[in-house]
Records
---
Amino acid sequence: MSTKIAKREKELTDLVTTRIKSMISSGDIDLPSGYSAPNALKEAYLILRETVTRNKQPVLTACTPESISNALLNTIVMGFSPSRKHCYYIAYGDQLACQPSYLGNQMLAKRLNPTLAEINAQLIFEDDEIGIEVIKGKTIVTSHKQTFKTATIDSIIGAYAVAVDIDGEIMSCVIMTKEDILTAWKQSKQKPFDDKGNLKKGVVHEKFSGEMAKRTVINRLCKTLISTSADNSYLGRSIHQGMAMSVSAEHQEIMVEEANQEMIDVQTGEVLEDDGFVESEFPEVNEQEQDIDPFSEPDF
């Protein structure tokens, strides 16, 4: 690592640490219990050192110090752990952005909705019997019967995800048809479809169609839960700022021309999908309560 990059890291770390401490003291933010800001910053830098722009330039030198500090600040404010793939760092021109991943959106949804216990997703197959009702203006899946024999990848016609509270009641539900899901996939920066509109062989959407469909409805549900819960606090503004980076398909194509197109898992070297396809259970956020200074150095 060059002296220039090492100096910039120290300056940015000091700046972000000072800002976070000030915001905690003034009551502007409240970090999750047991969260270690120094750990998160170290994890972020390990990733940023390996992250490059579309032109293969290191983001730590190609992006403005202001955008890097804001990306790091948003990482801490939102309680993200970069090593757990809660977020990804993407360069748009000389601007670095911290964007929540699939797992990060789930974590945020639970953090902003303390009564949220779990999120479940199911595929809908051709011969399934599914009951749908509109209750108080909300569309909810009330029953779902399916047989193992007809539950094949080729017979998927849709998917849904439900948010369940601690009392076992459905808080929210998202239902998507197969056409809705495919439309969402067409906005992927990885371009999983060929010129004829068919999924390319070997892409994650083709190899794991069922799991990717579940991930798509879960992500949409989480974004709904987040956007309806985020207030005007700094956390709320940071969330809305991150969501603004997930622009519409028309603008996304333009922005991606200046974005780093590939996101690399620095541990495996694997090229990740837009929000990192990771098979994982719904992450627990309410860690064991303990009085921890979020800026105390961890024990190694």
Note: Residues 246-258, 261-300 have pLDDT under 50 and may be disordered.
---
Amino acid sequence: MYNSYISIRTECAFFRDITFIIPQLYKISPATAYVLLRPPRFGKSLLLSILEAYHDINTASKFDFFFKGTAVYDSKIHNQNFVLRLNFSVPITSGPVENIAKIFDEALSYKISFLYDHYSDYLERPKDQNFSSFLHSFGILLEAIKDSNYKVSFLLKF
């Protein structure tokens, strides 16, 4: 079973092109938040993975390989954003509420730290930043992104 669009394309697996959805989203409004409701096992994770490969500035050099033969291959707006992908679909249900909140905060803080590593060519990691609080780290990240003149695509899975 493939868990990402990149692995499907890299391993030359069968893929039914659903990238035609991307231009349709931009026709509505490029700055809109979209909510996609689909039943389990219906391709939400794959669609998010496609959007991540399409938007991520770090996959720009591989765009031809990943998207040749798809509906978005001739697009001029690809690979121009940072991508922050968060998965809220895995429930944390054991223990006191305080512990669950702490685990949740630590997991989100880790994603912020990972983002700095993933985009180290574009974002300078703040000195003395320990990423212990998600809200604090997120605010600093948004300022760094604003200073970079790039945009960020938030991909959230619930």
Note: Residues 1-79 form one domain.
---
Amino acid sequence: MCRPGSVSYSEEACVYLPDTAPIINELQQILETGSRWECGGLDPKRGAGCYGLAYWAFRRVGIALPVTAEEAEHVFIRVCEPYCAWDIVLVQWAPWQMERHLGLLMAPSWGYHIAQSSNGLARFALSHPLWRRGLRHVWRYRVFATLTEGVCT
């Protein structure tokens, strides 16, 4: 039997994910005090880009990701549903645009992102039409993707 806070895909195997509650509490405080978007920024309290939010959150739970999204590509693996907390959502708002955007799931259906359009931190839901329409891929930190369930082949 898996302990609370883990994701279980079978009785024999559990994936233990970091607790999201402290991160959610910090992000809620940042939402209340305000934040700003900053291209390449890595701290939502001072200014961050979309990848900077993921970098900051993972670092808060002791996981050091590479500094840029391009460098981080090798530490994530593409996954299919079911999604879980700590997955990275890749969206592309318009198919003709090259620009992509990242959000960090804090639960299977919702998370946070930092965007220039919102000038800072905002919460999102995968059920929102904009996110549902723009969803391209979901990525999971390789250490959390030790089971084949959800991994796209």
Note: Helices lie at 21-33, 50-60, 69-72, 129-134.
